[in-house]
Amino acid sequence: MLKHEVLKEITLVVGKQNVFTEPEDLHCYATDATLGVPVVLPEAVVKPASAEEVSQILQIANRELIPVVPRGAGTSLSGGAMPIQGGIVLETTRMNKILEIDKDNLLAVVEPGVITAHLNQEAAKVGLFYPPDPGSVAFSTIGGNVAVGAGGLRGLKYGTTKDYVLGLEVVMPWGAIVKTGGRTVKNVTGYDLTKLMVGSEGTLGVITKIIVKLLPIPPASRSMLAVFDDLNNAAETISAIIANRIIPATLDIMDKNVIRAVEASSRVGLPVDAEAILLIEVDGVEQVVEQELNRIREICHQHHVREMKVARTAEEKEQVWAARRNTYGALTKINNTDLVEDATVPRSKVPDMMRFIVDIAKRYNLTIATLGHAGDGNIHPNIMFDRNDPDEVHRVEEAIKEIFETALRLGGTLSGEHGIGLTKRPFMRWEFGDGGIEVMSRIKKALDPNFILNPGKKF
Q1: What domains can you pick out in the chain, each with its CATH number?
Q2: This prediction's pTM
Q3: pLDDT by residue (tens digit) across 205-244?
Q4: Are β-strands 128-129 and 215-216 bridged in parallel, bridged antiparallel, or unpaired?
Q5: Alpha-carbon span 321 to 151, nearest angstrom
Q6: 75, 160, 229: which is closest to 378 by C-alpha?
Q7: Given Cys at both, which of 203, 234, 335, 378 links 384, Cβ 3.0 to 4.6 Å?
Q8: Are 229 and 197 in contact, with CB atoms under 8 Å apart?
Q9: Within a 10 A sphere around the Cβ of 333, how many other Cβ atoms?
């Protein structure tokens, strides 16, 4: 229980209007976008406006041994923003300024509460863009993206968040304000603390400022939709496109369960009788874009595509991609729980992984809707179930184990972009072994000896 005098001390730092302790205010901070996870109310929600305020709060929390869970917009799909030990939720959304867009050096300096889409809107005004493009781009924050190492639709060609963070300002658990990296493209001075913090899920420090790379907007881009009557043919097409040395900006797959859910929700004209569709975007110089698009058409025909549609207008293109980003919202309307995983495999193993997911759905009598950024091997099986049915919950748990076991056996990883949080922590030892877990545990203990930052996550 937070002592009254401690709460008063924190209130003096951020102001009474930025401290919340009433149950009706706390409940929404007990959950993030992860469904089916136990809910624990925090004792307080605190909203600082600067690194200095974060520093003072962490000094108090470290002294009093109070758990602190850093939080952005709460879009985590792995339970990473949930206060499972109570304590303080430290929400960073007041720190929401784009401090600088440096068009000469192709970078931006932002605070963690900046909405990802807002950064792209501002960068576009000077002909630049920020490539990481998570499905939650319209409402997730840059700070949250950095905390989990978010990926997104453009990960195949452009990489993920970790590839674009040049430097950070981070407040350590004892209150020290530390700067990592900087504004240069090359920087090998000292340990790479920037990379250590990206993907650390708020367990090592609180990010208060971020320097990110920007890129010039490609002069041309084309989007197409390829419809298949066989899921295996669609998956094999993905491998064939990559094997032909074509790297689209985006290469996503949606199976029949996803197609039907999205169409019922968005009404964008998706073919509900199809077994799978591929959403493909190529960008770059106009001549190269046309060449790659023609070659992709040939590959699709070789793999028995039923039809292909190329977006004719920017509005038509955006309509399809907006529907893709709304898949999770569409799927949650089917049942009371949609457990979204993001096991990732080598790109050549995507067909094997897709076949396995179909098999496991049959064997465990589950509905699994599969989509993903399949061009980079990042598969999202969405397991639809009733969390009030104990037998179904047990079958889901066993299915998840098999999904991760298979991904690792194929040379993959537990998470490509969502992070570990709560939902994947039981499987960490499978991937890293005792030695790897020991190394990471020692880093955690060295930087957060009192284990106040986001306790119970990752390990």
Answers
A1: 98-216 (3.30.465.10), 218-330 (3.30.70.2190)
A2: 0.94
A3: 999 999 999 999 999 999 999 999 999 999 999 999 999 9
A4: antiparallel
A5: 16
A6: 160
A7: 335
A8: no
A9: 11
